[in-house]
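Internal tracking record. Fields below are filled automatically when a chain is submitted to the structure queue. Please do not edit lines marked as system-generated. If the sequence contains nonstandard residues, flag them in the REMARKS field before resubmitting.
Queue: standard
Priority: normal
Entity type: single polypeptide chain
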Amino acid sequence: MQTGTDPEDIGIVALHEDGHWSLSTLTHTRDLSLIIDQLKAQPANGGSIALISIDEEFFVIMRLLGSQLQMMISDVTYALESDFAADVLDALDLPFPEEDDPAQPGGDIDLLQDLGISARELETLSDDLELFPDEQIEAIAARLGFVERYLELTGE
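SYSTEM-GENERATED OUTPUT FOLLOWS
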């Protein structure tokens, strides 16, 4: 399993505390247990969110609120070619895709509902073939209200 941050990956942690966001970069983007550890190490009353773009392939959102962890992946079919995507599907207890399965998001698609991003909006964003995963994550950061800080951290 690849660990660390691949140069093509983007990973940030956003903490929501008293109506304000604070952001930092993830130390690893392809190791599920290390990402979860980093989320747990930064407790916030409003929870912590990891936004991860893997290469130019797919994105993953993870949210830790108290002891509840929610995750979604933009396209479950990447589990066929990515160990990290397969780990996400396994953690979500989702069936492994078949070769001819259509691209589709999976997991807790409503994990940002209370922050103003509906499941339908995340599904639509996941299905947008015109956008790369880093652009999809940027759109999510914009909707959540911290796109400027996101762009500073990612150098976009």
